[in-house]
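To whoever is on call:

I kicked off a structure prediction for a single chain this morning and the downstream step that reads the tokens threw a length-mismatch warning. I double-checked the sequence; it's 120 residues and nothing unusual in it as far as I can see. Pasting both halves so you can look.
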Amino acid sequence: MKILLASSTILDKLKGAGSSYTGSSSGVGSGTQLASLIGTIISIALSLLGVIFLTLLVYAGYNYLIAAGDEAKVERAKQTITRSLIGLFIVLAAFAIAKFVVPALLCATGAGACPTLDAS
């Protein structure tokens, strides 16, 4: 139920992200809605990839448990576990880049709000 609600919220964000874009005829306008749309799409894609790799990890763990001592099955399950962990690490690194580097680039180009450091 929560997944269905989350997906409808994401769809609402996607529908509304580009609707308020007010560009002029010269192509100059506020790019924050476009940046928001791209950020939402990247977050959705990375979330789906994370779910895929976690599913692969569970699947490989299940295959490891039911291998019943068959060395070929155990080795294949270990390879799948290793590959899914590598993929999950890559997705987490991409997510970190998307969350920290992209806002910094938007700040540097003036397309987004700049983060402030609290001195307290």
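Update from on-call: the warning came from a stale cache, not from the record. Cleared it. Sanity check on the structure: The chain has three helices and no strands.
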